[in-house]
Amino acid sequence: MKATTTPSTSTPVAHNALPPPSATSTARSSRIAPHSHIKGLGLTAEGIAAPDGAGFIGQTNAREACGVVVDLIKSRKFSGRALLLVGAPGTGKTALALAVSHELGAKVPFCPMVGSEVYSTEVKKTEVLAEAFRRAIGLRIKETKEVYEGEVTELTPTESENPLSGYGKTVSHVIVGLKTVKGTKQLRLDPTIYEAILKEKIVVGDVIYVEANTGAVKRVGRSDAYASSYDLESETYVPLPKGDVHKRKELVQDVTLGDLDAANARPQGGQDIMSVMGSLMKSGRTEVTDKLRREVNKVVKGYVDQGVAEVVPGVVFIDEVHMLDIECFTYLNALLESAMAPTVILATNRGNALVRGTTDVVSPHGIPVDLLDRCLIVKTDGYKPEQIAKVVQLRANIEGLKLGSGVLERIAEEGERGSMRYALQLLSPASILAGLAGRSQIEVEDIAEMNELFLDAKTSASNIGADGGFDGGRMS
User: Which InterPro entries match (predicted)?
Assistant: First the structure.
């Protein structure tokens, strides 16, 4: 947020006063997330990490290691394994996982979750994990359909007397003329297809296609022969289809196994009042049985064997994995060994910690040793002051903020003393103070005032007295 209103010199404005809304306050703006600047791993063709690439600053070893994992995933040689990202808070573990998803592309399913999500009052812990794994396995279904495609040249409904009564007429059939670059064809269609044509608001000059098997009608757009010279058009113009009117078309549909499980698990109740009331009384989430999943897997395997579908293993990202308990870790081992298992990326900031759900099992990163043995472990490093300065400048550019002289160095010092997250959090509030003071850029005094208003984690911890209470006197 950046204010542009200059306060009046006659009336003093407190530092927490809101400026009046500007004329541009109604402009539409998109939300900027903490990792909006991450676009990928920023690797060269040889797999070498550039010091500054794709939104990443530093972390060259971790990025190169994740680049190797991306190559393994693309070559289908990493399924059923796990990658563990370890490091201090604010060193880019979540950013690395998101960068891996960017490198794999939008077609590969990526299912992020936090370790605490498994604790639900509606479903079991293991069910939440199993559901996340199923949503991370994609199924690309290729289907060849016979369609009639072309520009509508004629749309003539033929009416006949209604046989059920002596009043009115009904549509007995409809004549549709379709034209392509190669030729024309006249179709005699069922009246139910005419209803679909009316629902799609199809008129002469539109480009449509009709599925031969189901009779489904789809309007593609307006033929570009009817395009006008207006600067603003509400219509989508498409070129005249090539080839014959009657053709075979290959359609590709992407779903996940989780979608198939949910579609088959949802009960199809009757239309009586008891069925409707029962569906209203049921909980929002239902557990999917292992028997149903086995049946879905059997059907999917049949599609794959016929060459109709292709399985696309995706990625499950579990952040704060130390929040899982011993039961979840045991189930996670079983899921990793299953025939249909995605790639698993785990992240934690713990050192030696007690495994949740036990009283005496202390393990590195709070993860049992048997699961650690299955993981490739990548360590993230802390940031140097010059790297913090680069990250701050990058975030300022993303948020559209201007920094005055000396501000970058001052924020980098704060990041080294406290944490990089604290340094980044100072940017937006400091821009508000600068706007209230009538400046278009952040100055050093804005950062100094931010330090008076807010505390970083280390300063707050140092104010805790020896008895564990808060020592308010040390604030001054």
Answer: AAA+_ATPase, P-loop_NTPase, RuvB-like, RuvB-like_C, RuvBL1/2_DNA/RNA_bd_dom, TIP49_P-loop
Rg, Å, the chain Cα set: 30
Measured between alpha carbons, how far is residue 131 from residues 125, 263, 356 in Å? 10, 13, 22
Residues 351-367 have pLDDT tens digits of 899 999 999 989 999 99
- Whole-angstrom Cα distance, residue 358 to residue 221? 62
Instruction: Count CB neighbours of 349 within 10 A.
Output: 18
Query: Is residue 402 within 8 Å of 392, Cβ to Cβ?
Result: no
Name the DSSP letter for residue 240: P
Identify the band that residue 27 occupies on the pLDDT scale cut at 50, 70 and 90: very low
Helices 125-135 and 257-265: crossing angle, nearest 10°? Answer: 120
| Closest CA relative to residue 382, chosen from 121, 149, 88 | 88
Which band of pLDDT confidence, cut at 50, 70 and 90, is reported for residue 56?
confident
- In sequence order, what are the residues at sequence separation of 6 or more whose Cβ sits closer than 8 angstroms to the Cβ of residue 337? 80
Structural domains in the chain plus CATH codes: 52-137+289-379 (3.40.50.300), 143-252 (2.40.50.360), 385-463 (1.10.8.60)
Per-residue DSSP letter, 36:
T
Picking from 392, 319, 375, the residue whose alpha carbon sits closest to that of residue 350 is 319
Please name which of 103, 109, 112 lies closest in space to residue 137, comparing C-alpha atoms: 109
Using an 8 Å Cβ cutoff, are 141 and 303 in contact? Answer: yes
Contact of 321 with 115, CB cutoff 8 Å: yes
Burial class (CB in 10 A: 0-12, 13-18, 19+), 434: buried
Question: What is the separation of C-alpha 249 from the centre of its chain, rounded to a whole number of angstroms?
Answer: 30
Residue 387, Cα to own-chain centre: how many angstroms? 28
Q: What 3-state class would DSSP assign to 223?
A: strand
